[in-house]
Design a protein that fits this description.
two-stranded antiparallel ribbon, mainly beta, single chain, 0% helix
Length: 58
């Protein structure tokens, strides 16, 4: 899951998987999900950061 309730979430009990990285035709290397939390664990956003290395074309 890459979404979480944030400080402004209207319906915090709804769990949704909304974030996708579309990579049709690409060769993807390492990927990471970087949590959007501050050092105390407080959410800075309701979406985490998705990163990946594009190595070329498939």
């Amino acid at each position: 899951m890459t979404t979480r309730p944030s400080l402004i979430t209207r319906w915090p009990k709804r769990a949704m998987k909304l974030d996708w990285f579309l990579a049709r035709g690409l060769k993807i290397g390492k990927s990471h999900i970087i949590p959007s939390l501050d050092p105390s664990g407080r959410p800075l956003s309701d979406h985490d950061l998705i990163t990946c290395v594009v190595e070329g074309f498939a």
